[in-house]
Design goal:
This protein is an all-beta fold and 84 residues long. It has a domain at 24-80. Helix content is 0%, strand content 55%. The chain has strands at 11-22, 25-34, 38-42, 52-56, 64-71, 75-80. Strands 1-2-3-6-5-4 form a six-stranded antiparallel barrel. A hairpin with a 2-residue loop joins strand 1 and strand 2. The mean pLDDT is 88. It comes from Methylobacterium symbioticum. This is PilZ domain-containing protein.
């Protein structure tokens, strides 16, 4: 049996989002699931997303700064950066 090591439970979302790389570049994504600590995204351009990025979606209460924890060719696991 595989042990779930997540620090917080995840909610399945399947919501369109937008990864902002810089002031001129945004990449569409699908927010696959979400927790209070982070997110799993699906994007055809996952390899071009920098280690730190801004994520926006209508279901998020605000834009969030994210830090990549893991990535594959089409998926990204990221944690939300601490807010001051």
């Amino acid at each position: 049996m595989i042990q779930d090591r997540r620090a917080a439970p995840r909610q399945r979302l399947d919501e369109n989002g937008l990864i902002t790389v810089d002031e001129h570049t945004s990449i569409p994504c699908l927010i696959y699931d979400l927790s209070e600590l982070g997110v799993r995204l699906v994007s055809l351009d996952a390899g071009t997303v920098p280690d730190t990025f801004i994520l926006a979606a209508s279901r998020l209460p605000e834009v969030r700064v994210c830090e990549i924890v893991w990535r594959t060719q089409e998926e990204i696991g990221a944690r939300f950066a601490a807010t001051p």
